[in-house]
Amino acid sequence: MNWKNMSWKNIKDIDWYEVLLTSSGAYLPSVRSEIQGLLREEELKHGGATPGKYISYAVGSKLIKKASFKAGAVGGLTCLPATLPLIGTIGTLLAGSAVDLVVVLRIQVELCYAMSVAYGVEINEDELKAVSLAILGLSGSAEAVKAATAGVLRRTVDEMAVHYMKTGLPRATTEVAERLLPRLIRKTYRFIPFLGIPLGASINIASTMMVGNQARKYFNTWMDDSLL
Questions:
Q1: Which residues span the domain enclosing 25?
Q2: 149: which DSSP letter?
Q3: Which residues contact 16 (CB under 8 A, 6 or more apart)?
Q4: How many structural domains comprise the chain?
Q5: Residue 2 lies in a domain
Q6: Each residue of 94-126: pLDDT tens digit?
Q7: Rounded to whole angstroms, how far apart are CA atoms 77 and 96?
Q8: What is the rounded distance in angstroms from the CA atom of residue 154 to the CA atom of residue 132?
Q9: Inter-helix orientation angle 196-220/125-138, to 10°
Q10: pTM passes above 0.90
């Protein structure tokens, strides 16, 4: 994708299903293998005496930390054009916003995939994609505040995921991405030279941590259905 020639219309016309769910889905086997390895390492560290839910929690915390660090790095890098006199704020708005949104959302989708493995949740690939979309769309919204408990969150995410499956994942992915676009474009701090770098990083870190914690809360309920 040629980010240098990106415009607002191009950003809205991105094939979000392709860049988020289809591309990320190709990594599912490797994600599963990597997380299962982390679970085994954590079990060995505790000599097999620690209950599974604590192992999952420890691995989940590592996943959130790693994904947040990656998202923060992206946030800082995509603010850099504002410090370059030949690129300036226009280049930051078009190229930086597009790159930031695509890369950070992919990081967050893959974090949802990884969290499902950490908690031993086995659902088919399309359902997992729909659930991941629902978690992304829910995080930071008014609905997320209402869904404070794990049981309510799971029911809310499940309802959204069922809707996305009926709508069709390509269309649902576009709807979720377009709902998130205004939040990104409103980040005018990007256009403040140097100041935008730490702010861009911190906001990406916070949003990724939010997605990770929502994913953990959702998938954790599969270990204890009595929560529902």
A1: 7-227
A2: S
A3: 173, 174, 176, 177
A4: 1
A5: no
A6: 444 556 677 888 889 999 999 999 999 988 999
A7: 8
A8: 12
A9: 130
A10: no
